[in-house]
């Protein structure tokens, strides 16, 4: 599943009309129009999502599943309706494969904890140097507590992770491959379908971190063939506090529950408990009800715009930003894979990323500066921090120009 690589066609996508759906984009920062290029960290919310959340709290709120009154039934219908929206979004075969979590981070930890009993000392987990800390630290837990061995798949200078790089690490002790679908630093799209095919032939489970890819490209988990897929709501124009864990039935069945409490059990006795079937086995306590409803509204908004339309729009932004940023001789972009998303992490020679970000903030431009929770990747490129401009469905080529103008101002200031 790739981002379109051909020239985009005229789909009628009107970014100026889309921008009107996002109230925050009309505000000013330091007296300048807001240019929000921090979408890789968290995206802004359309009015449709804000309205759905407001309605849920104002008119339809109650706890779900266990009530028999009208509001509880309504809230349950809306909550489970959101699960069906997510199922369709990922093309999962059943709503029972969709687990609501608080974030991608919690989803990955759910898998890590759930598989712990199967991991013996010396068993291997393959990850890549592209990974966000959320797809690194949970596997270090298994290294620390179970003696697992973490093996790192390398990338080339352009940021590409190849199937061969993964295959060369596989041995008869490999239990899991856990890799990103799209890097949050370089925008690299990983050949995950081919990796899943490679793993299936060897009986190895695969977890994919879709925190970025679910935002920028169509995702079909059945076509990809992964065992687990995770993504988060707040990057997908939805609320924070909601994430998703997809799993094949047999992959979810093998996981020990991460949290214990109400909802995740069948029966509780003084001397024993029995657990509910997935997905409720992994949703202990009161779930993120309104957050799930907000995520459902966000997905419906994205689907109404058309994921291919969005991908084509972002392709234009990617190519234009690549061209404009390349005009700055002292600027170095980390990773330049041919098939990448509209994410650019860069450094400017002689100027710290934090200084750059503070200067361009005065021009209304919001970017991220730091390690982007990907220290091993930055170490691979020999840097300690970068600025990151990450684009979304509401950004424009004019905003790319504002970014470049602000960077030139920073260069003049720091001489």
Task: Give a verbal description of the structure.
- The structure is a single chain.
- The chain contains 15 helices and 17 strands.
- The strands form five sheets. A seven-stranded mixed sheet has the order 4-10-9-8-7-5-6, with helices on both faces. It has a four-stranded antiparallel sheet with strand order 13-14-17-16, covered by helices on one side.
- The chain is globular, with a radius of gyration of 22 Å.
- It is an alpha/beta fold and 415 residues long.
- The longest helix is centred in the N-terminal third of the chain and has 21 residues, at 70-90.
- The termini are far apart.
- Mean pLDDT is 96; it is low at 1-10.
Strand content: 15-25%
Spatial shape: globular
Mean pLDDT: 96
Count of runs of 4 or more consecutive helical residues: 15
Relative helix content: 25-40%
Structural class: alpha/beta
CA distance, first residue to last residue: 44 Å
Major sheet strand order? 4-10-9-8-7-5-6
Number of DSSP E strands: 17
Unreliable segments (pLDDT under 50, ≥5 consecutive)? Answer: 1-10
Rg, Å, rounded: 22 Å
Q: Quick one: biggest sheet?
A: 7 strands, mixed
């Amino acid at each position: 599943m790739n981002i379109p690589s051909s020239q985009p066609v005229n789909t009628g996508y009107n970014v100026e009309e889309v921008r009107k759906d996002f109230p925050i984009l009309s505000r000013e920062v330091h007296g300048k129009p807001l240019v929000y290029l921090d979408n890789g960290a968290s995206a802004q919310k359309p009015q449709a999502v804000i309205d759905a959340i407001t309605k849920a709290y104002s008119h339809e709120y109650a706890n779900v599943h266990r009530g028999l009154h009208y509001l509880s039934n309504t809230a349950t219908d809306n909550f489970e309706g959101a699960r069906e929206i997510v199922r369709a979004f990922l093309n999962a075969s059943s709503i029972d494969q969709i687990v609501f979590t608080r974030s991608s981070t919690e989803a990955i930890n759910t898998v890590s904890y759930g598989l712990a009993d199967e991991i013996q000392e010396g068993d291997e987990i393959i990850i890549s140097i592209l990974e966000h800390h959320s797809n690194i630290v949970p596997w270090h837990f298994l290294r620390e507590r179970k003696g697992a061995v973490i093996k790192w798949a390398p990338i080339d200078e352009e940021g590409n992770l190849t199937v061969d790089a993964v295959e060369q690490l596989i041995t008869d002790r490999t239990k899991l491959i856990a890799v990103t679908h799209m890097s949050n630093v370089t925008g690299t799209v990983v050949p995950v379908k081919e990796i899943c095919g490679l793993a299936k032939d060897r009986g190895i489970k695969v977890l994919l971190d879709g925190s970025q890819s679910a935002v920028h490209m169509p995702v079909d988990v059945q076509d990809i063939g992964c065992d687990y897929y995770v993504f988060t709501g707040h990057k997908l124009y939805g609320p924070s506090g909601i994430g998703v864990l997809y799993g094949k039935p047999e992959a979810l069945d093998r996981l020990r529950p991460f949290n214990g409490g109400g909802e995740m059990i069948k029966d509780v006795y003084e001397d024993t408990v029995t657990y509910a079937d997935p997905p409720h086995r992994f949703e202990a306590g009161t779930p993120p009800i309104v957050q799930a409803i907000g995520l459902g509204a966000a997905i419906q908004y994205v689907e109404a715009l058309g994921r291919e339309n969005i991908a084509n729009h972002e392709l234009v932004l990617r190519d234009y930003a690549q061209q404009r940023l390349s005009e700055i001789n002292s600027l170095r972009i980390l990773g330049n894979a041919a098939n990448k998303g509209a994410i650019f992490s860069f450094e400017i020679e002689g100027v710290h990323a934090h200084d750059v970000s503070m200067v361009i903030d005065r021009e209304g431009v919001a970017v991220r500066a730091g390690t982007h929770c990907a220290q091993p990747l930055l170490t691979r490129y020999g840097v300690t921090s970068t600025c990151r401009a990450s684009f979304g469905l509401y950004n424009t080529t004019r905003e790319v120009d504002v970014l470049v103008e602000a960077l030139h101002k920073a260069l003049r200031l720091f001489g």
